Amino acid sequence: MELYYNIVSPPCQSVLLVGKKLGITYDLKEVNPHLPEVREQLRKFNPQHTVPTFIEDGHIIWESYAIAIYLVEKYGKDDSLYPRDPKVRSVVNQRLFFDNGLMFKSALEYVECILKKKREPTEEMQQKLKKALGLLESFVKERSFVAADHLTIADICLLSSVTMLAGIKYDLAAYPGIPAWVSRVTAELPGYAEFHKELHEKSMEYIKTL
Predict the structure, then answer these.
(1) Same domain, residue pair 91 and 163
(2) Three-state DSSP class for 34?
(3) Going residue by residue through the chain (210 aa), what tens digit of pLDDT does each one get?
(4) pTM (2 d.p.)
(5) In 3-state terms, what secondary structure has residue 59?
(6) Torsion sign over Cα 185, 191, 193, 196
(7) Residue in 9, 64, 106, 161 annotated catalytic
(8) Could you say which of 35, 52, 77 is where a domain stops?
(9) Is 21 within a domain?
(10) Which of 57, 91, 152, 182 has the fewest other C-beta atoms within 10 Å?
(11) Residue 26 DSSP one-character state
(12) The GST C-terminal domain covers which part of the protein (predicted)?
């Protein structure tokens, strides 16, 4: 199974970490999706030319949430990462949609404003991010993990969004539940320390190019 990715991308991080949790070995294709020639290469099998793009036996999937769900449904030893119980799964789905619609977008907009535009985020950006973090804080105060009493793919995807903020040393003092939750999640992920080391190194290299 091939995975076109760049570890600096939070959606790619989610798919990489789901793979680690499942014990999957990808045929990794590290690419820079900002380069025109790479976009042209990706466009041959992904019209949105985005990463991550996953290919297995001619079956092509992009969008990290779709890839993660496919992997856990096909390769999970049980249903813990994406529970079959309709009520529990509905909460997992809600948290995934929350990440896609608010948490990831508000964090990305905030971080890109600082790193790419070299200016302070607007008041609107700050309030959007605070709203997202406040909601996440409430989720992890209700239970040990964001959607259940154990790790699910919602935790892994949301972890990647929060990790993006750690890269700019965003102060989470107002949200004490989030760092505690991060520690619980990362403790469940095999080889996370090594993964985080590579992520930090590649992120620093990327920032230098901006």
Answers:
(1) yes
(2) coil
(3) 999 999 999 999 999 999 999 999 999 999 999 899 999 999 999 999 999 999 999 999 999 999 999 999 999 999 999 999 999 999 999 999 999 999 999 999 999 999 988 899 999 999 999 999 999 999 999 999 999 999 999 999 999 999 999 989 999 999 999 999 999 999 999 999 999 999 999 998 988 887
(4) 0.96
(5) strand
(6) negative
(7) 9
(8) 77
(9) yes
(10) 57
(11) -
(12) 85-206
Hey, is 50 helix, strand or coil? coil
Query: In angstroms, how far is the first alpha carbon of the chain from the final one?
Result: 32
Q: Choose among 43, 58, 42, 55: nearest CA to 15.
A: 55
The answer to whether residues 147 and 91 touch, using CB atoms and an 8 Å cutoff, is yes
Measured between alpha carbons, how far is 206 from 210 in angstroms, rounded to an integer? 7
CATH number at residue 184: 1.20.1050.10
Task: Please report which helix (H) or strand (E) contains residue 141, including its range.
Answer: helix 123-142
> Hey, which residues does 54 pair with through a beta bridge?
3, 61
83-to-22, 89, 94, 136, 152 alpha-carbon distances in Å: 15, 5, 13, 20, 8
Structural domain contains residue 162: yes
- For residue 134 the two structure tokens come to 């406040």
| Residue 9 tokens, joined | 């991308």
* Distance, CA of 64 to CA of 82 (rounded, Å): 14
Domains: count for the chain: 2
Tokens 């092509």 locate to: 60
